[in-house]
Amino acid sequence: GIQVEQSPPDLILQEGANSTLRCNFSDSVNNLQWFHQNPWGQLINLFYIPSGTKQNGRLSATTVATERYSLLYISSSQTTDSGVYFCAVNTFYDKVIFGPGTSLSVIP
Amino acid sequence: DVKVTQSSRYLVKRTGEKVFLECVQDMDHENMFWYRQDPGLGLRLIYFSYDVKMKEKGDIPEGYSVSREKKERFSLILESASTNQTSMYLCASSFTGTGTYEQYFGPGTRLTVT
Prior knowledge:
The structure holds 2 protein chains of 2 kinds.
Chain A: E1 4-7, E2 10-14, E3 19-25, E4 31-37, E5 43-48, E6 52-56, E7 59-64, E8 69-74, E9 83-90, E10 97-98, E11 102-107
Parallel strand pairs in A: 2-11
Antiparallel strand pairs in A: 1-3, 3-8, 4-5, 4-9, 6-7, 7-8, 9-10, 9-11
Chain B: E1 4-6, E2 10-13, E3 19-25, E4 31-38, E5 42-49, E6 56-57, E7 64-70, E8 73-78, E9 87-94, E10 103-105, E11 109-113
Parallel strand pairs in B: 2-11
Antiparallel strand pairs in B: 1-3, 3-8, 4-5, 4-9, 5-6, 7-8, 9-10, 9-11
């Protein structure tokens, strides 16, 4: 099956700093999502981005499907950005595979 | 906005009890999923359903069953709860029609079995 890797596994940032999270996947996929799991455990949809670039406020994401990776950019980080960021992929009619996550801590 | 709700945020049950976790979505999604999340093990798929009264086993179905009598509701049943079923349970739904399969999650239920 498809393997999903995320890097870095852990990240500590000073408030206001920028960061880039990476997701690598081992095979072609039709769908890719980025989620943020907040400290209360809820998974929040950030981006649905099987290819191309999208932006939403301070967050943006780019997926290069031909090279099998996706990047999530967080600019001007805030303490509320803390939590775990997951990348999830699947092909049509197949189950979703989640990466192991990147744990982000933003300190004031 | 898609809304997925789960019946409880926190639940404490005793070993051997029958436990029902309910999930409701309001966007007419065909597909619904139950995951559990444990430290160091990530999200693991328990069961999923792609239509009313249909169910498919995921990666770890042992000790669980599911029910989907209505399109908007997907229930996870622990027939006889055990301590190793203490976990965070997450429900999700997705829409097949556009082919995106974009998943939306509920707030989760933290289940403790004592």
